[in-house]
Amino acid sequence: MATKDNQILPSKEQGLFRQVVKYYETKQYKKALKAADLVLRKFPDHGETLSMKGLIISSQDTSRKEEAYDLARKGIKNNLKSHVTWHVFGLIYRAYLNYDEAVKCYKNALRIDKENYQILRDLSHLQVQVRDIAGFVDTRATILQLKPGTKSHWISFAIAHHLNGSYDIAAEALKKYEGLQEEVTPNEAYEHSEMLLYRAMVLDEGSQHNEALIHLDLCQEKIKDKLGLLELRAGLLLKIPGRAGNAEANFRKLLMLNPNNYKYHDGLREALQLQPDAQGRWTDQQRWLLTVLYKELAEQHPSSSAIRRIPLDFKEGEDFEAAADRYLRHFLCRGIPSLFSDLKGFYSNAQKRETIGSLMRQYLKALEDTGAFPQLPDEAGSPEPQPQAKEWVLFYLAQHHDKLGETGEALRLLEQCRELAPTLPELYTVQSRILKHAGDPQGAAEAACKAESMDLADRYLNSVAAKALFRAGRIEEAEAMAAKFTKHGEQVNSLTEMQAMWYEIECGHAHLRQRAYGKALKILLATVGHFNDFMEDQFDFHAYCVRKMTLRAYVQMLRMEDTIHKNIFYSKAAWAAIQVYLELHQKPAAVNSADDDLANSGLSAEELKKLKLKRKKEQQKAKKEEAAREKEAEAAALAEREAAKQAAKDKGAAPKKQAPAKDKEKDPDPHGEQLARTEDPLGEAAKLVQRLREHSGDRLKTHELAFEVYMRRKRWVLALEAVKRAAGIGGPGSPEAHCMVLRFCHAAQSEQGLKEVQPVVAEVVTEELAGLLGSKTTAQYNEAFLEEYGTQSLRHRAAAARMMVLLDPEAKAAAAKMLVKRGGLLGGGVAAEAITHSDAQEVHQLLANELREAQAAADFKAKCQQVFRWSSYFDGPDRISFEAEEPQSEHTQQNGTHEKDSAKMNGVAKAVEELAIA
């Protein structure tokens, strides 16, 4: 830290000020603060000391933010022409993550002292942090001119031009620095090797593939990362015309090192021009060549699972059946539970799906009859008995039938598997998944908890159980389950500190379903905050990676950080948080108090009383738990101190005086009540929407929520953009996009629609309406959608019904009739396999809550009871009951009466057929 100041201090105080800087740089904040106070005692208006005191306070205690800012502002006011005061103000802004203001302060400091290396270095780190690449290039060029003999400055200059797309300059800078090096010592050999590989990477990205290959050939003796060298060479050879043969040889060498690396297989197939077309299809000639290739590779690497698995992608018909036969036998004999997860991608192909199912049924019959798999065509002698494989065949078939929506058959097979292997936890995780798909979240939670109880040391089973409990609405049990793997006493807070985002998202959704908006926001915004932490964490690597010469990894990290908000965990958390804000905007009174929340919930008086009592008990329990945790922590700290004293006494030495442990700062809003009381919920939602539009614009849900926010904020142009983007992503048959188009057009054409907007906005929106609807009216547009797409799923029909009522509020009866009666407006039925539990639940809620057609809702529910027999929502006759006083047998309680399954499935098939008819 430079100390030049226009306010000249006496020599004694100058020495004290230098001590302030020294103590600060060595993180001795108490001594630095004491020295600063000594200076200010005699010179209370000394600008640089005031600024330094603010910087020390911000480093010592982040909660004293305003005090640090006030001191820094006072320091600048007292000495506006000191680069130190501006530099320190920038450091304080940086400490509080206000990077834009910090950059401004650094630039003001440089106007006063243009060649200050420390300020230039700090400015360059901030510029790359905020991706001001043009400014980063200029700053690194200035630093290189000031100190051309330092290695890190040449490397940073090259990185700046690489990020800026100036590949020639970056490569030339690296080459020039290499020429300036007189000798590479053994200690620097690896760093030098990384620089050489980085230069090849720069040349490659600059489309100078030949130059990069020549560079690698010249430097291969100096490169220590031989695997990285081989991978880079293989990739370069693929891009150079006429060098495919050399690329093939390199990829074959790589496969000798790791035959299970799918990237190497992709490269080899590309070198041999055996890649599929844009639709993922191969020609017959390609399939034959691929078959020969993988037969050869299988002989070279008989233990490679990738070489067994990849041929299933390109083979068809009898060839696929033969390859799948061998593949399935191999894993079934070894009892691999993840076999179905490996193969479920083929279930979108009806032929391959049926082939796999047929093979499994053949295995089951042969194992029941002989205890061995069926004879292979090229096998000699009797097949080897594999009686233990039967349980894994049943295990797979249960998942197979669940994927096909055949819940009864899936549970029956799972029960048979349980009789053979009653202690296998995976049986209960699969049962949990089956019951979840069947619409029984409580049964799914019970099965997952059973699996967890069979192996208490398995964190995966614990996580599955916690997730199932959240989805069943049993939040307290879920938190207790998840807390088993956290630090003692920390409970669920540790999961947030560990950034367990799956937990936070499930917990947030559970609170959202229970309308506990404050708690939902608290946990969901914590997930959003993790991504801000990820962005902040990269700051320390800007200098570290250059110093350690991990240049390729550093550039990859920067590119990853640029797209980190595209991560699905961020999208899920942000989507749910936006939904919370939308509900808060719709019912702002719900956040004023818990009683208001209940009053607006639409529950009966008796249900309200029960829910209020439940909330009161939860609050009392939470207070008791918090008090118990504090007491336990105090007892643990006391026991630790006593143990330290006793240990010191045993050694005959006086115990060291330990500093009292700093109490963890209490959360001022543990339940998110202040978050839920936000005055502008739509404004908060719009911030999340903006980030999602930038990074998750290829996801339909983003534009659905953007449309909801912008329509409520009367931002017509942005809402129009959301409609068009959603229509482009979802296609003309998307129910979500259809609803958005009609809602937008109906709102724009209404009496109050465009009256309050600017004329230019009204003109743009009016012109776009014709493009959205074509030559149709809104009613004709909805009828055309119903006629063309209404047979695809219940969700499509539900969308058409909603729009019927939107366009004509008197059409509720007609919309209900269209949804549940034979014939109706559709003139056709939804295919049986297109009926899902979630779609049926949506239709029932539409009938009961929005259309308020009680009789139609009751009739629809009666039909669904026979289709979704395990559904708790539809009160299915085979659902698992957890309230019975007499405990049922495990066979009956968890799977229903399976001896009548065949009769039930016939009834289900008939009910599905009836439900499918429009």
TrEMBL record:
It comes from the Eukaryota. Residues 619-683, 885-904 are annotated as: Disordered. Residues 619-653, 660-680 have a biased composition (Basic and acidic residues). Keywords: Repeat, TPR repeat. Gene3D superfamilies: 1.25.40.1010, 1.25.40.1040. InterPro entries: NatA_aux_su, TPR-like_helical_dom_sf, TPR_rpt. Signal peptide: none annotated. TPR repeats lie at residues 83-116. Pfam families: NatA_aux_su. This is G6488 protein. It comes from Coccomyxa viridis.
